[in-house]
Amino acid sequence: MIYLRLFLEFFKTGLLAVGGGLATLPFLRELAAKTGWFTQKDIIHMIAVSESTPGPIGVNMSTYTGFTVKGILGGLTSTFGLVLPSVIVCICVAAVLQKFKENKTVENAFNGLRPASMALITAAGISVICGCLVFPNEIINGNFAAAFNVKGIIFAAILLFLFKKYKKHPVIYIALSAVMGLIIGF
Amino acid sequence: MKKLFELFWTFAKMGAVCFGGGYAMLPLLERELVTKRGWTTQEELLDYYAIGQCTPGVIAVNVSTFIGYKRCGIVGAVAATTGMVFFPVIIIMIIAGLLRNFAENVYVQRALSGIAVCVCVLIADAVSKLWSKSIKNKFGIIVFAVVLLLSLFTDISSGFFVLGAGLLGILFFGREGSEK
Q: What residues of A are in contact with residue B119 (Cβ under 8 Å)?
């Protein structure tokens, strides 16, 4: 029963991959080596597709893998498997939290959690910027000319200005950026 | 039923435009759920992200489950999560089935290069907005700085940072509370 196997493998991935989409990567590598359903090279392609389409990367990866192995049903099965453990765990956590919301200890814990959460989001932001606008490796190599995506930085500044001034829905800026990317390329 | 569909559709719309993973979704969530609909607050959103880090699975899914549960209980959690993955699943299947060279296509890459710049800006804006909500004292600044440096320069799993920071919060503020 390949569907059951797909479901179980991705259930395991969803249960054990803590910390976001790319945390599923080692599990996929292992899965490829173990089952031969897809190759390590396929994984690289899957990452490229997952990052170039909307949606959580982990979800995209599991849909892609499942579909490659066993078509539409395969894609649905593995995605369901991936998502199910998070949904169950989060429902339990949410239920417990709702009960203990007023609890002093829980409140104290959150006072520590929020700055940490903020730091992780900032770190994610910095790593996105470092892959797109600034390239620290080039700075280390002393190659300053290649270290900055000048066109990109100028466009980012314009976007930030528009975003602050007009406060439109982020989608509008995403669409605008896609068009600008098509025309100019960053 | 209408409330459930609203949950599903709100998350489906966000899932359809969320490029670059869970963190890049934060500005969308902030806009859609806090500013526009008032379903949650900025503090709560940060809490969900914190918990999403140390619970298993994809962060975007975890956050959808939390917000869905808060709105409509277990069915709400399922509706929001289904919404979140709805378009991505369809899009990936189309690409996997038909557009084998999608990621290598030069036009796709150009459009994405623009979107990547936008994601930088959106995340930077979300960070600046959430800063004052999350960091209110010296303790907060220290935790922020330590976690930021460690997560940038080491491979320690982010779940540990969150758990550690939570424990520190209990120890630090617990003692402060008893002294007062």
A: 128, 132, 174
- Per residue in B81-140, pLDDT (tens digit) is 999 999 999 998 998 888 777 777 888 888 888 888 888 888 888 888 778 778 888 889
Q: Provide the residue ranges of all domains of chain B, joining segments of one domain with +.
A: 2-131, 135-180
Distance between start and end Cα atoms, chain B: 49
Q: What is the ipTM of this complex?
A: 0.79
Residue type, A91: I
pLDDT in tens, A58-79: 888 889 889 988 899 999 999 9
Cα distance between residue A7 and residue A78, in whole Å: 5
What is the residue-wise DSSP string for B14-43? HHHH--SSTGGGHHHHIIIIIIIS-SS-HH
Give chain A as a DSSP string: -HHHHHHHHHHHHHHH-BSSGGGGHHHHHHHHHHH-SS-HHHHHHHHHHHHHSSS-HHHHHHHHHHHHHHHHHHHHHHHHHHHHHHHHHHHHHHHHHHHTTT-HHHHHHHHHHHHHHHHHHHHHHHHHHHHHTB-HHHHHTT-HHHHB-HHHHHHHHHHHHHHHHH---HHHHHHHHHHHHHHT--
Structure tokens at A10: 């991705």
Give the relative orientation of helices B158-179 and B42-54 as an angle to the nearest 10 degrees: 120
pLDDT score, position A35? 85
Pick among B89, B119, B128 to test the A interface (most A CBs inside 10 A): B89
Candidates B137, B144, B134; CA nearest to B165 is B144
Q: Which of residues 41-80 of B touch A (CB under 8 A)?
A: 43, 46-47, 49-62, 65-66, 69-70, 74, 77-78
User: How far B174 CA lies from chain A's nearest CA (Å)?
Assistant: 7
